[in-house]
Amino acid sequence: MAHTLDSLDKKILRLIAEDARIPFLEVARACNVSGAAIHQRIQKLTNMGVLKGSQFLIDPEKIGYETCAYIGLYLKDPETFDEVVEELKKIPEVVECHYTTGGFDMFIKIYAQNNHHLLNIIHDKLQPLGLSRSETIISFHASINRQLPIIEVLGPVEVEKEEKEEEL
Fold first, then answer.
1. Euclidean distance between CA atoms 86 and 90, whole angstroms
2. What is residue 134's three-state secondary structure?
3. Strand pairing class (67-75; 131-139)
């Protein structure tokens, strides 16, 4: 469910999404409000769960992880999903795990030092989790990697109005 954000919230989000290290005083100047107002809004957005923190992004290749792979996992017993997720959390190379529609019981993103290391992770760490099989896709390069844009969310009345305008 989308949270109700006013224009100031959206402007703050656009600025900090573009540069997470932007000083709050610079955000305040851009928004024509006080630094304290920015601090309060950031806290509000964090409490609402809109902001989930800030972090430095490390380039995996620069620290020795040359292989990025996506692996679709098929579990022998799909009822063990929660237990498998807990075990996946113990494998540091697994950076994402998704419960998805389609054939896979779960879909993970993993980084390995090279293809041999990836094979070892699959054989030694993933297979013992109770997989019936897996399908691996190796990513050569991420062509797009970005934040979602801050958009105007239309309510039902606005959607209906917009659809009528498009018909004209």
1. 7
2. strand
3. antiparallel
Mean pLDDT (the chain, rounded): 89
Residues 19, 24, 27: CA angle, nearest 5 degrees: 70
The model's confidence at residue 55, banded by pLDDT at 50, 70 and 90, is: confident
Sequence-separated (6 or more) residues with CB below 8 Å from residue 99: 81, 105, 106
Tens-digit pLDDT profile for residues 133-146: 999 999 999 999 88
Q: What six digits make up the tokens of 104?
A: 């896979």
* The pLDDT of residue 34: 95
What one-character DSSP code corresponds to residue 63?
G
Say what the pLDDT of residue 160 is: 52
**154 close to 80: Cβ distance less than 8 angstroms:** no
Helix (H) or strand (E) holding 17: helix 7-18
Instruction: Quote the DSSP letter at residue 102.
Output: S
Please report the sign of the dihedral spanned by the C-alpha atoms of residue 141, residue 143, residue 148, residue 154.
negative
